[in-house]
Design goal:
single chain; alpha+beta; 7-stranded antiparallel sheet; 5-stranded antiparallel sheet; 16 helices; 18 strands; about 35% helix; binds flavin-adenine dinucleotide; binds zinc ion
C-alpha cells in the first residue's frame, strides 16, 4: 500500500499527462474497477488511469515503472478468470483507445485500437462490405485489447481460428514505457521470433496492447443454421466428421450441447423453446456459410442430414428457414450461459482435448465427479469442432451451498486430471488469470513455466505488469 502522499503525488503526475478527469481516485468509482465481471472477486487499487492514446499509455507506464507501481490493464472486464482484478497499484482502463485507424480492403486488414468494442469492429467491417469473424457471447462489451490479451476464441474458430490467427501486427507499450510498433500488415514475415504471439494471450503480464492489425475476410452471403439431435456424443462426433468431410471450409460452427444444457436454456429463457417435442441426450448447432459463387450451403447441409436421418444415426433435425429462426437457434446456444448464471452457484471449466477423446472425456470426468458427491449435476457444451468443452458442475437441490463449495478443490482435480489424461489443456480459451494458477503449477510442465518466467523477468524485471496473474508463485 502506498502512503497517502505518494498516491497524491502519483495522481498529480498522471493527471498532468492525461488531463483533468482522466484519473479516478474516488473510492466509489475505484470499487467498480476492483471486481471481476461476475462481482465474485474483489481486489484493490489506488487510482484508475484512462489514457486515450498510445503515447499517453506510454507516459502512464513510464511513471509507474519509475515508482514501481503495479499496473492492471483492463478492457471490457468480461474476462472469466479474474485477470482484471487488481492487486494494488493502478488500473489502466483502455476503453478510451477507441479509434479504428485504418481499413485496407486491398490488403484485407483493419487497424484498430485496443479499446474498440468487438461488436464495433464487426460492424465497421460489415459497413465496408467485408467480414471480421471473431464472435463470442460478450461481443457487445469486450474490447479487442482484452480479446488479444486472452487469445479469445468463440463460435467461429472452426473456420477462421482464434484471434491469434486473425492478427498480423500489434502495437504494445512495454512495462518501462517504450512503444513497440509492430503494426505490420504483412501476410508473410519470417524475420526472427514472432513477438506478437508472445503478447497475444499474455493476459496483461508483459505489457499493454494498444492497437492491432486484424485480418478481414469476404462477407459470407449464404448461411444455413440447423439444430440436430443425437442419441449420444459419439454419434454427434461421427456426424461432425461426415459434415466436415462433406462441407469442408463451409462448416463455420459445430456447437455441442448436452440435453441438460439445452433444458437449462429453455427453463430460464422465457422465449427460448427447444424445437423438439422431447429432450434428447445431445444436440449440435451447426452453421455453414458460403461466399458469392460458392456451392449452395443449404444442400451441403441437407444431404448428410437426410442420410443421417435415414440410417438412424440422427434422431431429429430442424433447419432454420429465416434469419429470425437462425437467430432463435443461436439464442438457445447463448441462453445456456444466461441459464447457468441464473442457477447461481457453479464451478465452470473450459478444457480442451483432442476431438477424438471428447466422448471418453465427458463420461470419465462425470464419473470422477460422482465419486466426489452424487449430488453434483454435470453439464457439458461447447465449441466441440475445436475440441473445446465447457464443463459445468451445479449442486443438486438437496446439496447445501457450503458443502458444494467445500468440494471445489476435489472437483478441480477431477476435471483437470481427466483432461490431462487425454493430453488436454485446463484452459482452452478463457486463460489463466488468478483462477487457474494452481493448475499451472500442477499440469504445466515445469520447463515451460521456467521459460515463461524468464520471458516475464526479461520484459518486466520489476514485476509491475498485472502481478499475481498467470504465473504461479515461485516455490
Ligand atoms: P478484460 O476482461 O478487460 O481483460 C481480460 C484480461 O486481459 C485481463 O488479464 C486484462 O488485464 C488483460 N487485458 C485487457 N486489455 C488489455 C490490453 N489492452 N493489453 C494487455 N492486457 C489487457 N472467451 C472466449 O475466448 N470465447 C468465448 O466464447 C467467450 N464467451 C464469453 C461469453 C460471456 C458471456 C463472457 C462474459 C465472457 C466470454 N469469454 C469468452 C471470455 C473472454 O475472455 C472475454 O469475453 C474477452 O476476450 C475479454 O475481453 P475484455 O475486453 O472484456 O477483457
Ligand atoms: Zn466458449
Amino acid at each position: 500500500m502506498e502512503s497517502p502522499s505518494a498516491i497524491t503525488s502519483l495522481f498529480s503526475r498522471l493527471e498532468e499527462v492525461l488531463g483533468k478527469g482522466r484519473v479516478l481516485s474516488d473510492p466509489t468509482e475505484l470499487a467498480a474497477y476492483c471486481q471481476n465481471y461476475q462481482g465474485t472477486k474483489k481486489g484493490s487499487c489506488q487510482l484508475v488511469a484512462r489514457p486515450s492514446s498510445t503515447e499517453q499509455v506510454a507516459a502512464v507506464l513510464s511513471i509507474c515503472h519509475d515508482r514501481h507501481i503495479a499496473v492492471t490493464p483492463r478492457g471490457g472486464n468480461t474476462g472469466l478468470v479474474g485477470g482484471t482484478v487488481p492487486n494494488g497499484g493502478i488500473v489502466l482502463d483502455t476503453t478510451r483507445l477507441n479509434r479504428i485507424r485504418e481499413m485496407d480492403l486491398l490488403n484485407a486488414t483493419m487497424t484498430v485500437e485496443a479499446g474498440v468494442i468487438l461488436a464495433d469492429v464487426q460492424s465497421a467491417a460489415r459497413q465496408a462490405g467485408v467480414f471480421f469473424p471473431l464472435s463470442l457471447g460478450a461481443e457487445g462489451s469486450c474490447r479487442i485489447g482484452g480479446n488479444l490479451a486472452t487469445n479469445a476464441g468463440g463460435t467461429a474458430v472452426l473456420r477462421y481460428g482464434n484471434i491469434r490467427q486473425l492478427t498480423l501486427g500489434l502495437e504494445v507499450v512495454l512495462p518501462d514505457g517504450q512503444i513497440w510498433n509492430g503494426l505490420r500488415s504483412l501476410h508473410k514475415d519470417n524475420t526472427g521470433y514472432d513477438l506478437k504471439n508472445l503478447f497475444i494471450g499474455s493476459e496483461g503480464t508483459l505489457g499493454v496492447i494498444t492497437a492491432a492489425v486484424l485480418k478481414l475476410f469476404p462477407m459470407p452471403v449464404d448461411w444455413v443454421t440447423g439444430l440436430v439431435a443425437f442419441t449420444s456424443i459419439d454419434t454427434a462426433l461421427s456426424f461432425f466428421v461426415t459434415l466436415r468431410g462433406y462441407a469442408g471450409d463451409a462448416l463455420s460452427a459445430f456447437e455441442l450441447m448436452d440435453g441438460e444444457s439445452l433444458a437449462l436454456a429453455s427453463h430460464h429463457g422465457l422465449h427460448l423453446v427447444a424445437p423438439f417435442d422431447r429432450q434428447h441426450p445431445c444436440y449440435a448447432l451447426v452453421e455453414l456459410s458460403g461466399y458469392l459463387g460458392s456451392q449452395d450451403v443449404q444442400s451441403l447441409l441437407m444431404k448428410p442430414l437426410e442420410s443421417g436421418l435415414e440410417d438412424g444415426s440422427l434422431i431429429d433435425a430442424v433447419v432454420a428457414n429465416s434469419l429470425q429462426q437462425a437467430k432463435n437457434l443461436w439464442a438457445l446456444r447463448e441462453g445456456i450461459v444466461a441459464g447457468l448464471a441464473a442457477e447461481g452457484l457453479r464451478f465452470s471449466y473450459d478444457i480442451s482435448i483432442p476431438i477424438s477423446s471428447i466422448s471418453k472425456f465427458i463420461p470419465r470426468a462425470a464419473s470422477r465427479i460422482a465419486s466426489v458427491s452424487s449430488h453434483i449435476r454435470t453439464i457439458s457444451f461447447g465449441h466441440v469442432g475445436d475440441g473445446n468443452v465447457h464443463f459445468v458442475l451445479l449442486p443438486a437441490v438437496d446439496l447445501a451451498a457450503e458443502i458444494f463449495l467445500s468440494y471445489k478443490e476435489k472437483c478441480d482435480d477431477c476435471i483437470f486430471r481427466t483432461s490431462h489424461d487425454f493430453g488436454g489443456s485446463f484452459s482452452a480459451e478463457h486463460g489463466v488469470g488468478t483462477d487457474k494458477r494452481d493448475a499451472m503449477s500442477r499440469y504445466k510442465p515445469s520447463l515451460e513455466i521456467a521459460l515463461m518466467r524468464q520471458i516475464k523477468n526479461s520484459l518486466d524485471p520489476l514485476g509491475i505488469m498485472n502481478p499475481g496473474k498467470v504465473l504461479p508463485d515461485e516455490a
